[in-house]
Amino acid sequence: MDNRIKGIHHITAIAGNAKKNFDFYTRVLGLRMVKKTVNFDDPHTYHFYYGDKVGTPGTILTFFPWEGIQTGRRGARQVTEIGYSVPEGSLDFWVKRLDDNNVIYNKPSVKFGEQYVSFLDPDGLKFELTVPKQPDTREPWTTNEVSAENATRGFHHITITSNKMDATAKILTDVFGYKLLEQEVNRYRFVTDAVENAAIVDIVEIPAEIAGHVAGGSVHHVAFRVENEEILMQYRDKIVNMGLHITEKIDRNYFYSLYFREPGGVLFEIATDNPGFSVDEPVEELGSGLKLPAQYEAHRSEIEQSLPKLA
Prior knowledge:
Layout: E1 8-15, H1 18-28, E2 32-39, E3 42-51, E4 60-65, E5 78-85, H2 91-100, E6 109-111, E7 114-120, E8 126-130, E9 154-162, H3 166-175, E10 179-184, E11 187-191, E12 200-205, E13 218-226, H4 229-241, E14 250-251, E15 255-261, E16 267-275, H5 300-306
Parallel strand pairs: 1-4, 5-8, 9-12, 13-16
Antiparallel strand pairs: 1-13, 2-3, 3-4, 5-9, 6-7, 7-8, 10-11, 11-12, 14-15, 15-16
């Protein structure tokens, strides 16, 4: 049994308008709506899960769309960029698509020898579409407008902005098993060889950067992947032994989770592969119906009426 951290499991962010979020990610980016449910702590707010066909860990981007929320601010102590992997030769397609849809983006650039395009979603969340050095062979979700030749494959990396990176780096290397691969100026690239993809964490160190504010257009937390609950609890022991506070195991219906704030200020989650997103609806129907946590099922009618319309 491989008890290592297997890269990124999912990333959760905050949005404003639910319909704008749904339209952007399913139509413009061409992701699949894998699960449509509600916030465990606020059942009158959606929780959207976007990803590939089956919701493979390493492809899942989730959102809490809170209508009317104020806009956040990128800064230190945050995940400030989300990187998706795209095929070689696809950036021209994406530049045109972003342009056609009035998306704010920058011209293609290069870092660590990889070409990328950065852009902002409707709430200001920052993304990069990166052509990896090694072709990403994950099977993409495709749509009528985004073909397999251009579609995203899943996560390539995340970027954490930090005033002082040492303590965050120690969690990555000493606990999660990452290694420092390379450095460009003040950007440090950490990787794990436990998986081929969704395996990169960049830390950008800016001592004078003010702390960011997590709100609309911000990453709420990043989840790292383990195979099962037994391994999950092994990592809980490791975090406790470092003197950090970590939650008890939480059942999130589609995975089991632990949460802790790493010393640099970013909220980390560790999440299991099991049971997966097909536990309550078949793969062919993923994301088509509203799925509620059991404690809210008795209030389905009220909740459905309170949620924003997506069509």
